[in-house]
Amino acid sequence: MSIQSVDVKYTAVATAENGRDGRVSSDDGKLDVVVNAPKELGGSGEGTNPEQLFAAGYSACFQSALGVVARKEKADITGSTVTARVGIGALANGGFGLKVALEARIPGVDEATAKELLEKAHQVCPYSNATRGNIEVDLAVV
Predict the structure, then answer these.
(1) Residue (of 23, 5, 2, 29) closest to 133 by Cα position
(2) 60 and 93 within one domain
(3) Which end of the chain is more exposed for a tag (fewer CB within 10 A), N or C?
(4) At 142, is the pLDDT very low, low, confident or very high (cuts 50, 70, 90)?
């Protein structure tokens, strides 16, 4: 697979201090959070963690991609939601990896249409494009 060229319109900048037991902040001050490893990974679980931040970003981005696709398909997705579940665990060959489940609730359309919209959004979403072929991403209509 070749690397795609991107015409960058915006660049987010965030800096982490002390990894999973520290702080992450954006250069514009809009994001400034304490991060701690979750209890399941031996941490205090008191702050947020990178997987929650990734889930937040992926769900918001995917919801926007769903909106782009829905407008093009003239589908009503009013009241829809997208939930991202990001799991972390050990890889068989060493190191750690992620697994994502995206769950969409789209009350304004039938299940077949909802599944079609999800598949199309998965082709549009920048997070989906970044993770494709690297991690497992499951799509579900709930």
Answers:
(1) 2
(2) yes
(3) N
(4) very high
